[in-house]
Amino acid sequence: MLFYLFVIVALLSLSSYYLGRKRAFAVAGSHIRNLHSLPSFYGSYTALWCGLPALIVFTVWAALQPSVIIELVVASLPPELQQLPPGRLNLVINDIKNLVSGNIVSSNPDATILAAADHYRHLQTTGNAALWMIVIALALAGITYGWRTISPQLRARNRVEQVVNVLLIASSTIAIFTTIGIVLSVLFESIRFFHKIPVSEFLFGLQWSPQTAIRTDQTGSSGAFGMVPLFTGTLLISGIAMLVAVPIGLMSALYLSEYAGPKFRATAKPALEVLAGIPTVVYGFFAALTVAPLIRDLGTAMGLHVASESALAAGLVMGIMIIPFVSSLSDDVINAVPQSMRDGSYALGATKSETIKRVLLPAALPGIVGSILLAVSRAIGETMIVVMAAGLSANLTANPLQAVTTVTVQIVTLLTGDQEFDSAKTLAAFALGLVLFIVTLILNIIALTVVRKYREQYE
Q1: Cα(249)–Cα(239) distance, integer angstroms
Q2: What are 303-336's pLDDT values in tens digits?
Q3: What angle do CA 243, 382, 267 make, to 5 degrees?
Q4: Which residues contact 415 (CB under 8 A, 6 or more apart)?
């Protein structure tokens, strides 16, 4: 229902754009030079008056309506239900919601719950009907007001640009506060974890076994929360992936941009970028069913002990997956270097290889570093390939033939299923996320420093 209302408002805004544009031509006497702004700005002005107030009310109403309905339904319940503990009251509310939506409830509902569900359904229907009437009335009123205020003296462009400027500032503010909220939420939960587990044990511990028992008399009641094996596995797999992706990706970008003909480039580049569109679970199957057995058989033939799940298998397949991140971006950056710089190098007697090494690569280095950094972030955050090809064992080893795990895999494992958010096991996921965030931030700072240094030398 709400989706259809949104579509109607969007169609009314589109119609108001053409009405406002037509009105601008009418008041100008078909002479655009008599208008302060272009006719398209008058159309945008009318569309903003139609859509913006209606969408604001639509968003606020849709966000607040469920909470208001729940408050009214709870207030209509008998006093003995209203005085239930919060946990049991939430179960009652969930049963009411399930009855309204037609889902299975936790128990056989009694007459009180059925009556509350009917009340909930009535309030929901009434609220949706009121929302439809108010939003459509606002949209029509906005069309009328915007259409009537159009005149040759109206500074439509200024007003539209002011609204767009406010929307851009609001979007930037939302993005900034969202980032701050994510960091603070992870930080607060990490602080709770460090109240249970010492920071030194977490940062420098060599054992990772987060399985904790509910009761102290159970086996394994105290887990080990040393993150070193996890970050060692993360760096090992990411390092192998980058050893595959960076040389192949960079060399392919150089070939496509400097050596390949137009026909081959038009075919090879899209074919190479197809690798980025393959789901990671497919790469995981490929690593588990093809690459890992192949490495194990080769290792056995050479007299080496290779685990059935190894860091080498995961790293190789992950490297293949992130080749397009390096090749495509590097190719675009290299092509963006002005042709005049190539011509000047050739005029001085440099060969093509010398031009690439001494002119193109230094000029394109900031973009190349950015592509490599994006590939590193993609490798560090990969989960599915690691689960299927490297396993879940937190082994502290630098041997790529052994099974290891990564930080992201453990975060998913710790937060999967029914967990107590007060336990050290669950809170450890937030601590791992915080340390991973800090490590990624340090890598970004280093990369930006290198890029700035070379850019200053180049300029």
Answers
A1: 15
A2: 888 888 888 888 999 999 898 888 888 888 888 8
A3: 65
A4: 426, 429
Token pair, residue 203, equals 């940062």
Contacts 24+ apart (CB under 8 A), 267-276: 269/328, 269/331, 272/323, 272/324, 272/327, 272/328, 273/324, 273/328, 275/320, 275/321, 275/323, 275/324, 276/321, 276/324, 276/325, 276/328
Per the structure block, which two tokens stand in for 352?
A: 């093509």
Burial class (CB in 10 A: 0-12, 13-18, 19+), 401: middle
Task: Tally DSSP H helices, then E strands, for the chain.
Answer: 19, 2
pLDDT, tens digit, for every residue of 160-200? 999 999 989 998 999 899 989 988 988 998 898 888 888 88
Largest CA distance in the chain: 93
**Residue 50 CB contacts under 8 Å (≥ 6 apart), including other chains:** 9, 12, 13, 16, 139, 140, 142, 143, 146
Give all domains of the chain, ordered by start, each with its CATH number: 2-154 (no CATH), 224-458 (1.10.3720.10)
C-alpha closest to that of 325 among 284, 362, 280, 373:
373
How far apart (Å, rounded) are the C-alpha atoms in residues 258 and 338?
13
Look at the pTM and tell me if it is higher than 0.85. no
Determine how many CB atoms are found less than 10 A away from the CB of residue 202: 21
Q: Calculate ∠ Cα 300-306-307, nearest 5°.
A: 135
Which residue in 125, 123, 130 sits closest to 75, CA to CA?
123
Per the structure block, which two tokens stand in for 447? 């990369």
Q: What is the DSSP string of 296-350?
A: HHHHHHTT----SS-HHHHHHHHHHHTHHHHHHHHHHHHHTS-HHHHHHHHHTT-
Measured in whole angstroms, the distance separating CA 278 from the mean position of its chain's CA atoms is 18
Question: Residue 137: what pLDDT?
Answer: 93
What DSSP character marks residue 246?
H
